Amino acid sequence: GGGAVDPKNLKVKLVLLGDSGVGKSCIVLRFVRGQFDPTSKVTIGASFLSQTIALQDSTTVKFEIWDTAGQERYAALAPLYYRGAAVAVVVYDITSPESFAKAQYWVKELQKHGSPDIVMALVGNKADLDEKREVTTQDGIDCAEKNGMFFIETSAKTADNINQLFEEIAKRLPRPSA
Ligand code: GDP
Ligand code: MG
Question: Parallel, antiparallel, or unpaired for β 150-153 and 119-125?
Fold first, then answer.
């Protein structure tokens, strides 16, 4: 392959997929800026945000996070969006069975068209809304197991499990050899 890959300082493209309104942008802003703004209509647009984390073995992982808004509506453009992605985070809202069905659609799409060694995470967001829950934790676990994905429930609102999500992804990345 071209270019030098430093196995101690990884740089990875991460895309978020899922229905509009499940909290993708809020997850990104919570992770990158430590903020949650319930009123903002976040559209990061064509650019991306990045955030670097350090693992215990002193490896660093720089996530280049793609969170374009259009992919929800223009499914045909999605392959352009997740092309070359090392990580796909598929998000649903635990209060929305429709969003869970859509998440399963995205998982199938990624299996068909994504990079063969892509790391996939299934994320049930809005875990703070447990009283309105309509997708059980077990449903999420089963779906993830069936598809060889990492599973976690998060809340961008309370920050619950947001850092853990990205740390677990980082641990699962294939390591280039030195
Ligand atoms: P996106 O379309 O998937 O990017 O969703 P957004 O990040 O724009 O969030 C959609 C709506 O859900 C906003 O009104 C957010 O305030 C709300 N939201 C996002 N994450 C959470 C969460 O973890 N808990 C709750 N209660 N609301 C959330
Ligand atoms: Mg968004």
Answer: parallel
Ligand located closest to 129 CA: 1
In sequence order, the 6+-apart residues with CB closer than 8 A to the CB of 94 are 124, 125, 126, 127, 129, 130, 133, 134, 135, 140, 153
Rounded Cα distance, 135 and 99, in Å: 10
User: Given ligand 1 and candidates 16, 26, 35, 41, which is best to mutate, with the most ligand atoms within 8 Å of its CB?
Assistant: 26
pLDDT digits (tens, 9 = 90+) for 41-89: 655 554 578 999 999 888 999 999 988 665 666 677 778 788 889 999 9
The answer to whether ipTM exceeds 0.85 is yes
Helix axes 162-172, 24-33, angle to 10 degrees: 90
Pocket flag, ligand 1, residue 69 (CB < 6 Å): no
